[in-house]
Amino acid sequence: MKIFKRMFVAGLLRKMRTVFTNPVTYFLRFGNEEICLNELLGRKIGLSYTGVINCIKCGRETKNSFAQGYCYKCFISAPETEACVLRPELCRAHEGIARDMEYARENCLIEHIVYLAQSPELKVGVTRHTQIPTRWIDQGAERAIVVAKTPNRYLAGMLEVALKDIFSDKTNWRNMLTGNADNTLDLQAEKWKSEGLLPYDFARYFHPDDEIITINFPVLHYPAKVKSVDLDKNRRIEGRLIGIKGQYLIFEDGEVINIRKYGGYNVIPEIL
């Protein structure tokens, strides 16, 4: 299908929607519209920031964005930005303590997954079972394996802490966007090595299934070096789209932009 040049009306930017296909299908979401980005690979596109930010929770205009799209009031009060979002071991929902217990029952007091993912270095992470494989896609993981399953977020966080002694919990975004993955890494062997690190009381949550999930991303080719674009300093990015990985757009000249970072920013997309 031929796609013609088009400029859209400004809309509030949100995290890209993904569909687990081969390769992953990406949709740029802004306002009430979506653009299928896979159809634009190899095309020149533009993204202009209008200078206006609206909170993705309450909608009010804000001078600064906190936690990828919230105004300060929502940042310090919304359940989506509670401390356990980044540090699951701090969750207290199992003790009846949370900013919003209804939200906690739906998001913290449910089965959680402790996993190892290659993106491109091996890292340990935690996510709700309902976020598999979306969480791995958002991290740009090319392969992932489940290590443990727990009945709540707190227990998953404690397991993650125990595994941080040998596995990182960070993603090197530059390596992830230049395709520098170690294809010799044995995820199954690394998983079983981790079994011996689990505290005795937590060993029962270890998951014996060794299935490895492989994720392919829509990337024509990887740049040798990448440079992140800051919309607060440069309100427009334009170039030939050569890939989408994680929540990043990758352009032919090596410029990249983390779409999730700019949640709430009002932008005008263009197909050039």
- Helix count? 6
Number of strands: 14
Percentage beta strand: 25-35%
Mean pLDDT: 94
Structural class: alpha+beta
N- to C-terminal distance: 16 Å
Instruction: State the major sheet.
Output: 10 strands, mixed
Helix content: 10-25%
Radius of gyration: 20 Å
What is the overall shape? globular
Short key terms for the protein model shown above:
ten-stranded mixed sheet; 2 domains; four-stranded antiparallel sheet; 6 helices; 272 residues; alpha+beta
Describe this structure in words.
The chain is of the alpha+beta class and 272 residues long. It has two domains: 6-66 and 219-271, no CATH class; 75-214, no CATH class. The chain has helices spanning 72-75, 101-107, 134-138, 153-163, 173-177, 187-195, and strands spanning 6-7, 11-19, 25-30, 33-36, 44-53, 112-118, 122-128, 143-150, 212-214, 227-228, 236-245, 248-251, 255-258, 265-271. A hairpin with a 3-residue loop joins strand 6 and strand 7. The longest helix has 11 residues, at 153-163. It starts with 5 loop residues before the first strand and ends with a strand.
Question: Any chance you could write out the topology, listing elements then pairs?
Answer:
Layout: E1 6-7, E2 11-19, E3 25-30, E4 33-36, E5 44-53, H1 72-75, H2 101-107, E6 112-118, E7 122-128, H3 134-138, E8 143-150, H4 153-163, H5 173-177, H6 187-195, E9 212-214, E10 227-228, E11 236-245, E12 248-251, E13 255-258, E14 265-271
Parallel strand pairs: 10-13
Antiparallel strand pairs: 1-14, 2-3, 2-14, 3-4, 5-11, 5-14, 6-7, 6-8, 8-9, 11-12, 12-13
